[in-house]
Amino acid sequence: MIPISQAIQIVLQHSPKLASDEIALPDALNRILAEDIVADSDLPPFDRAQMDGYAVRAADVANTPAQLKIVGESAAGAGWHHEMNSGEAVRIMTGAPVPIGADAVQQVELTREPNGAGTVEILESVETGRSIVKQASEIKSGETVLRAGEDINAQTIATLASFGYSHLKVGQLPRVAVMATGTELVDVSEKPGRDQIRDSNNYTLEAYTKLAGATVKRLPLAGDDREELKRQMETAVDDCDVLVTSGGVSMGVYDFTKTAFKDLGAEIFFERVALRPGKPTVFGRIGKTLIFGLPGNPVSVAVTFNLFVRAALRAMQGASETSLPGLTAVLGKNVKGSKDRESYLPAILRTDENGSLIAEPVKWGGSSDFVSFARATALINIPADAKKVSAGSIVSGCRLPA
Ligand code: AMP
Ligand code: MG
Prior knowledge:
binds magnesium ion; binds adenosine monophosphate; 402 residues; 7 helices; alpha/beta
């Protein structure tokens, strides 16, 4: 049995970064940048008005009301490119360039423009620089604004668009195949017969794989039959980068997943992790395809996928951050640790009336209790051998992907 941190280290060591794809900006959401993003212009590209109003010289309006002659208009996309002198004002719109000679913008609400007079009355003084965003005050041309390895989310898109990245390089998507094993399994569309249950793991694994940014193929259900498992695994490894199985890795007489991996010549990097739930997790490689043999219980599948498989899929895309977002929270009720194993227990996060983040462990019916798990938003980390961790203690953990 190896510690979780070591298992993750081993996974990352064996997860090679794939090549990059050149894609169009609208397709970039949720991908990982494979190039640094460099500003091709200053931001703002010119001194820019932040308000609708009048460009003025602050000194001209030190005493108010002040009467100024309107000498022009500067609109967004159609600036007034002359020099503005003392005693003059230029009507200006948000986003428009501020004329040379002006050093402040007074907002329209604090002015009065009598009809047809060609003048404006400035009702309140403004300090120099008011409502002007100076050229390059946000970003200088040539600056690196985002780095390879960062996630592209909705917040990132404006930066990519503004600096002209109509196409950009992102990490290739790993191709994942998921395969549930167990003679008891039937598909969701079927009514389970005697001794049978519906498969949920293939669908869970498909969902988490998509959240980790990879493409996924669900393989047909495989019974607990060594030859059948081998046949299916063999076809899967031919056209995927990662094969994820669930079930058949424990000590039962019909647990053949590991045997089948080995029959196919797999190198096994680990096969037991000091983790609850998820101790019998297997990680290895057949040819170039990484293989993860996850346990069968649905909660174990969710935990082990997110600790190990997700890290591999993100590393393969070149992500600089491969683990789930971490958190520190106040424990909502007493929990027990597990002998010799670190626990990752499902919890619901909430904020209490003092603003503290509370992690409320879900009712733990064991690693088969997927209905309790359905409301979890986080996993909390309980050290091995902890006899009792009391409500009110500070615990660390991670957020489940959403
Ligand atoms: P195993 O790891 O194969 O011993 O399975 C452990 C438990 O998880 C057993 O109760 C299985 O019936 C259950 N299980 C295994 N695979 C699945 C699956 N694909 N969907 C739902 N439950 C499963
Ligand atoms: Mg089984």
